[in-house]
Structure to design on (584 residues):
């Protein structure tokens, strides 16, 4: 058994391709992004002049900057999707267990949007929203409509996550509670919710992180309009970086600011998920 | 007794609500399929109906049972055969090329990333080398980076190595991922060490152990990961949109957005293209569902 403790130098060859690729396109890329955000990018030279925090200043206080509008719209979108998603996915998971028949059919149908390209979903809903009173043409309803589509697409997937979480709750807990005379509401609050805690935290934080990066539906359905009411951060970043010449630094600065917003939620998730000790108690 | 009926009422109510939900989920698909077989004039006049007017039972009843044939209707039936929009999407929109591109990108990304991730996961699970923990934790940390920050620099990196507007530039960033390595490593760790030790006593090499013992035993994890990787590659939109400008290399998602811009007035055709773009993945998942053992909880970490 001495052999097992020997160092395997070949291991570096095994991890090299995957490790290098991952690092180049994540950590290294983040460094490049930060470097770009400190420069006045010139696409023809493939480089730029160092301007310090000037890009950040322009994003945050510039007169032509849509950052705050976009941040407000994106946050509104996140809140709508989050509330709508939790309000549908969790009740649906509970109902799906309760409805003893057709569960396979329900799972399949509710899962469909997760395997349909976002572009196709956006194209279909573009038509549907047109039918239901030109929802995308009014600045008051456009963002709501996009959020409705966001809820529709993510609801089923999250329902399945909740179902998986529900199936892990030992049935004895409910039996014991019933003997103690608990009604279904107390059962829900004192057994289901605590046991689902990890799933809940995961689903909520993933929804927030995903929704803050909403892009495809805006790109396909509204292009940020009408009157900037659906201008979201990822779309603003994309347009500045790839449609307007010479705004790469500006877009990178905006991307970093969005990253900071998202990091807050990543941090919250790490704290909340690590502290769970429900099975040990 | 009252308890039983109460339970039954609950089940019935739950069923009703779930069926309403199922209709909400299915409706956009039915709408897309129905619209995709409508003729242009039908779509302009009647967007609501799920069945194209020329195929509605009352009309067909009139023609085939009552024998009242209406020349305009007969012409519609003949001119707009059901698959006409699909054929036109291929002939005029080149949807077949986009589908083919998407398929190739997804197959390349899936097979290469499974290979690289398997190698790395095996090393992290079974080999001993200095810095293993540090390197693995570094990889885990990369999972926290949202794609919106890496989009621009990824483009700059790809530009630097001259792969903008090249198929390799589309697939290269997808060739490895911390999530896949993490998932496979967890799976490999649960394979009993005794199997490997026995193989080693028989003179099997590391490489041999990986491909002859570990990989065959990990089929469920590999298939699940492969399926979700394939899905991610098929549905990717923002990255190919950024990196490609030559239409010949467009995957389906980007191609569809372009097709919509070119055929803005012809929605039945656009929706037919959309149906063609989503059907392969739905079929794939339907065929593979029996392999997806615990798939959703395995994939739960990925969104």
């Amino acid at each position: 058994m001495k052999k097992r403790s020997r160092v395997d130098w070949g291991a570096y060859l095994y991890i090299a391709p995957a490790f290098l690729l991952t690092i180049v396109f994540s950590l290294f890329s983040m460094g490049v992004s930060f470097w770009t955000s400190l420069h006045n990018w010139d696409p023809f030279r493939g480089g730029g002049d160092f301007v310090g925090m000037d890009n950040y200043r322009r994003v945050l206080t510039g007169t032509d900057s849509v950052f705050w509008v976009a941040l407000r719209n994106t946050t509104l979108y996140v809140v709508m999707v989050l509330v709508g998603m939790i309000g549908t996915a969790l009740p649906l998971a509970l109902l799906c267990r309760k409805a003893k028949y057709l569960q396979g059919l329900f799972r399949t149908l509710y899962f469909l949007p997760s395997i349909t390209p976002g572009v196709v979903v956006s194209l279909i809903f573009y038509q549907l929203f047109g039918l239901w009173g030109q929802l995308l043409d009014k600045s008051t309803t456009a963002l709501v409509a996009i959020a409705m589509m966001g809820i529709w697409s993510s609801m089923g997937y999250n329902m399945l996550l909740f179902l998986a979480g529900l199936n892990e709750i030992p049935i004895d807990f409910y039996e014991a509670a019933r003997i103690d005379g608990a009604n279904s509401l107390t059962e829900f609050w004192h057994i289901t919710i605590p046991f689902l805690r990890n799933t809940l935290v995961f689903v909520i934080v993933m929804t927030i992180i995903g929704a803050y990066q909403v892009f495809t539906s805006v790109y396909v359905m509204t292009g940020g309009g009408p009157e900037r009411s659906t201008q979201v951060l990822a779309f603003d970043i994309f347009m500045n970086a790839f449609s307007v010449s010479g705004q790469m630094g500006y877009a990178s600065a905006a991307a970093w600011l969005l990253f900071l917003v998202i990091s807050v939620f990543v941090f919250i998730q790490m704290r909340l998920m690590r502290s769970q000790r429900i099975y040990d108690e | 007794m009252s308890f039983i009926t109460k339970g039954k009422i609950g089940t019935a109510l739950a069923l009703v609500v779930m069926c309403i939900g199922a209709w909400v989920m299915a409706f956009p698909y039915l709408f897309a399929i129905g619209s995709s077989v409508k003729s242009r004039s039908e779509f302009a006049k009647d967007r609501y109906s799920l069945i194209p007017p020329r195929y509605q039972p009352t009309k067909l009843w009139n023609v085939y049972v009552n024998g009242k044939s209406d020349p305009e209707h007969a012409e519609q039936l003949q001119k707009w055969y059901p698959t006409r929009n699909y054929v036109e999407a291929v002939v005029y929109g080149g949807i077949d090329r986009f589908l083919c591109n998407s398929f190739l990108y997804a197959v390349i990304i899936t097979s290469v990333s499974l290979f690289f991730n398997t190698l790395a996961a095996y090393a992290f699970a079974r080999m001993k080398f200095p810095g293993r923990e540090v390197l693995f934790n570094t990889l885990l940390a990369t999972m926290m980076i949202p794609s919106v920050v890496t989009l621009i620099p990824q483009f700059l990196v790809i530009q630097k190595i001259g792969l903008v507007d090249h198929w390799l530039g589309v697939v290269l960033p997808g060739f490895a991922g911390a999530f896949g390595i993490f998932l496979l490593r967890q799976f490999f760790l649960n394979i009993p060490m005794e199997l490997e030790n026995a193989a080693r006593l028989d003179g099997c090499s590391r490489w041999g152990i990986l491909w002859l013992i570990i990989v065959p035993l990990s089929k469920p994890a590999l298939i699940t990961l492969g399926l979700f990787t394939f899905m991610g590659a098929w549905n990717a939109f923002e990255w190919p949109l950024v990196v490609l400008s030559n239409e010949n290399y467009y995957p389906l998602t980007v191609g569809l957005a372009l097709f919509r811009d070119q055929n803005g007035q012809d929605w039945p055709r656009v929706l037919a293209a959309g149906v063609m773009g989503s059907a392969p993945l739905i079929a794939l998942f339907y065929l593979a569902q029996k392999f997806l053992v615990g798939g959703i909880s395995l994939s739960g970490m990925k969104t």
Summary: Chain A has two domains: 2-58, 60-274.
